[in-house]
UniProtKB/TrEMBL annotation:
It comes from candidate division WS6 bacterium OLB21. CDD domains: TPP_OGFOR (cd03375). SUPFAM superfamilies: Thiamin diphosphate-binding fold (THDP-binding). The keyword Translocase does not apply. This is 2-oxoglutarate oxidoreductase subunit KorB. The lineage of its organism: Bacteria, Candidatus Dojkabacteria.
Length: 287
């Protein structure tokens, strides 16, 4: 039986005091333990950034790759190891700037990967530049006169691409966050968990207090229904409220590997089918 202390690392966090990354770090460990996974039962894939600095603060099988490329890394690991739960973790900058195309295709493909976005509305590690989720007009280190680009709504994007699991959490609600991560891990297909988080150093517009005063659990709405169009309609982050919870889930979701019907009779994973080829003879023609 896995315990929280199994995930302890001797390396202590270097995040700013009050950073939402602490809550996500804690929620992730709690969710994994609640699902009965020990550190060697899963693979955590980390992107670059303050979020990715979690990689050595948690003792588990893990892979840290290039900025914006965590989805292809995680997808590859998943495709080769069908039975291995894979969790990919990234920032909003890495996801919606550098790596946007991967987000689009992972949703289309429906790889069975849990994808967690630390959405602090800025490039944190490189000191507060604007990302696509920064508010339009907001002054940032990369936009001293204010951001001129329109703000991206990642929830709408995911829903319109056909995502079968879209959730939004908040680092001020740890209990809910643990539940969302558990549900995402259990979902059969690509599960997107967008986490609105406090960045005490660079995000002074959508901070902990601003969010605390506006977040509500979607299921408490009288007209709530688990429906893609409904989720779309309540997905804006606005002065009037910020919906959190599982915004939409298709419980009948079929993941990429499960759709490969020709593989259904195979007992093996792709990693078992890798063959070694002798290529020295062929290479001779290039000498
Ligand atoms: C391809 C590439 N582009 C840019 C960088 C520089 N870089 C390193 S961390 C970082 C900011 C990360 O921001 P985000 O992904 O939002 O994560 P956060 O630090 O906010 O958690 C950038 C731009 C990089 N390492 N690689």
């Amino acid at each position: 039986m896995a315990e929280l202390k199994d995930y302890n690392s001797p390396i202590l966090p270097t995040w700013c005091p009050g950073c939402g990354d602490f809550a996500i770090w804690s929620a992730l460990k709690q969710a994994l333990v609640a699902e009965g996974f020990g550190p060697k039962d899963i693979c955590l894939c980390f992107d670059i950034g303050c979020n990715g600095n979690m990689a050595d603060k948690i003792n588990a099988y893990a892979f840290k790759g290039l900025h914006g490329r965590v989805i292809p890394t995680a997808s590859g690991i998943h495709l080769a190891n069908k039975g291995l739960p894979v969790i990919a973790i990234a920032g909003d900058g890495g996801t919606f700037d550098e790596g946007m195309q991967h987000f689009v295709h992972a949703i289309r493909s429906n790889y069975n990967v849990t994808f967690i976005v630390h959405n602090n509305c800025d490039f944190g590690l490189t000191t507060g530049q604007a990302t696509p989720t920064t508010w339009e007009g907001q002054k940032m280190n990369s936009a001293p006169h204010g951001v001129v680009e329109k703000r991206l709504n990642p929830i709408k994007l995911a829903l319109s691409l056909g995502a079968d699991f879209v959730a939004r959490g908040f680092t001020g609600n740890l209990q809910q966050l643990v539940k969302l991560l558990q549900a995402g891990i259990r979902h059969n297909g690509f599960s997107y968990v967008d986490i609105l988080q406090h960045c005490p150093t660079y995000n002074h517009f959508q901070d902990h207090i601003w969010l605390s005063e506006r977040v509500y659990d979607i299921e408490t709405k009288p007209d709530y229904k688990n429906d893609r169009d409904y989720a779309y309609s309540i997905s804006e982050i606005s002065e009037d409220g910020v919906a959190t919870g599982i915004l939409f889930q298709n419980e009948a979701s079929t993941s990429y590997l499960d759709k490969l019907s020709y593989r259904s009779a195979y007992q093996t994973s792709l990693k078992d089918e890798v063959k070694n080829y002798e290529i020295n003879e062929s290479l001779k023609m290039f000498r």
